[in-house]
Hints:
Blueprint: E1 3-6, H1 7-12, H2 14-22, E2 27-31, E3 34-39, H3 42-65, H4 73-81
Parallel strand pairs: 1-2
Antiparallel strand pairs: 2-3
Amino acid sequence: xxxxxGTFEAKNRLSELLTQVEKGQRIYITRRGKRIALLTxxxxxxxxxxxxxxxxxxxxxxxxxxxAGPESLRDxxxxxxx
Length: 82
């Protein structure tokens, strides 16, 4: 279960919240009811970054493998306007 805490409360209870994060809890910090930040363990954040990096690498590989067609960019723009 995720916890939501307002910014003021998070500022006043940061040490306690960090202890909960160490135990595996994810804590969302909210402002006016909207989630603006996430406190999570460094290992969770590293894992997320690694997954994101793999997806980005796959997109880069796909882009490198794509062949440009004979059309110029100008031709494609004009085609889209019709």
